[in-house]
Design goal:
The protein is α+β, with helices and mostly antiparallel strands and 308 residues long. The protein has two domains: 7-180, 3-Layer(aba) Sandwich (Aminopeptidase); 193-305, 2,3-Dihydroxybiphenyl 1,2-Dioxygenase, domain 1 (Roll). The protein is 24% helix and 34% strand. The chain contains seven helices and 16 strands. An eight-stranded mixed β-sheet has the order 1-2-3-4-5-6-8-7, with helices on one face. The protein has a four-stranded mixed β-sheet with strand order 9-12-11-10, covered by helices on one side. A hairpin with a 5-residue loop joins strand 15 (287-293) and strand 16 (299-305). Helix 1 packs across helix 3. The longest helix is centred in the middle third of the chain and has 14 residues, at 111-124. The relative contact order is 0.09.
Length: 308
């Protein structure tokens, strides 16, 4: 049996392990939506009973040549679809992708793209695949457009393979190779670094606060920037640049860095023990958070996700 990470997470969704009872019941409910099933499956749409769907879900999800996740919205915890890889061939480092958002209330919100992006990052990274392929109904224009944006290339088509509404339709065969991911298009992929400033006289205190109190590991600055002073740190693959700037009242700005942490109450106690006043932030769904000012006036936020 294939082993896989139990959970892959983005800002809005997570990919979680399949539960045969939960997801089988959902598939039975979704199967009553003939329009959705016509996009998801080439078979003639027909409603399924929960018992059959549970058995099919367990059989499909735990085959040695397949790997499957449920798509869960973090805010509220609803499971809205399925995604996975089938025809997984380790000797060729190749697999085929399948995905479906079963709940129409969550269509056209970008969840499909987010889920496929998570899966492709995992497939080409953790699983070390060389190729991910898929087939898609040519008439499913939204899905075809999404796959093209993600870099999939049309490699062929099965002409007039699918019978729908009395007409014979094509099925497209598409593929994506490891060196083609992510697609070479103008897009923001992630935040590389943020910069905060202190006065020159406060630089060593800034080192004590960010490197010692917060525990951020320092990284080397490029030689070309060393004469500008300051220091760099890194956490979670992203960087914090601490630089010097004179004559600015930083206590009057709303600009801030938000640190996602664990053990949020412990962090609040730690900061208050170091002399930093803290206050509650305006509540937002799915998170606990508070804010403070570092010893130099920079606004900082500490935030932790909570169970939906």
């Amino acid at each position: 049996m294939i082993t896989f990470s139990d959970q892959l997470t983005s800002d809005r969704i997570r990919l979680i392990a399949i539960d045969a009872e939960r997801d089988g019941d959902l598939m039975a409910r979704w199967s009553k939506d003939a329009g959705m099933m016509r996009l998801f499956d080439s078979d003639v749409p027909r409603p399924r009973v929960a018992r059959q769907s549970r058995a099919d879900t367990e059989k499909w999800a735990y085959r040695d040549t397949a790997i499957e996740w449920a798509i869960q919205v973090i805010d509220g915890g609803a499971v809205i679809g399925r995604i996975g890889l089938h025809r997984y061939r380790t000797s060729h480092r190749a697999a085929d992708l399948h995905v479906g958002i079963g709940d129409r209330a969550h269509w056209s919100k970008g969840y499909g793209r987010e889920a496929v992006t998570l899966l492709l990052n995992h497939a080409f990274g953790e699983m070390d695949l060389h190729r991910v392929g898929l087939i898609v109904f040519a008439a499913n224009e939204r899905a075809v457009a999404l796959y093209r944006k993600l870099g999939f290339v049309e490699e062929g088509r099965w002409r007039q393979f699918l019978r729908r509404d009395g007409a014979d339709q094509d099925i497209l065969v598409m593929g994506l190779l490891r060196h083609e991911w992510p697609p070479a298009i103008a897009q923001v992929r992630r935040i590389h670094h943020v910069q905060v400033c202190v006065s020159s006289a406060e630089l060593e205190r800034a080192r004590a606060f960010y490197l010692d109190l917060l525990g951020l590991p320092e990284i080397h600055k490029p030689e070309s920037l060393k004469d500008r002073g300051g220091f760099w740190a890194e956490v979670g693959g992203q960087q914090l640049h601490v630089s010097t700037e004179e004559g600015v009242d930083r206590t009057r700005t709303k600009a801030h860095v938000a640190w996602q942490v664990r053990a949020l109450p412990d962090w609040r106690a730690k900061l208050e023990a170091a002399g930093c006043a803290t206050l509650d932030s305006i509540p937002i769904p799915g998170y606990d958070r508070f804010e403070a000012r570092d010893p130099f006036g920079n606004r900082i936020e500490f935030i932790q996700a909570v169970a939906g």
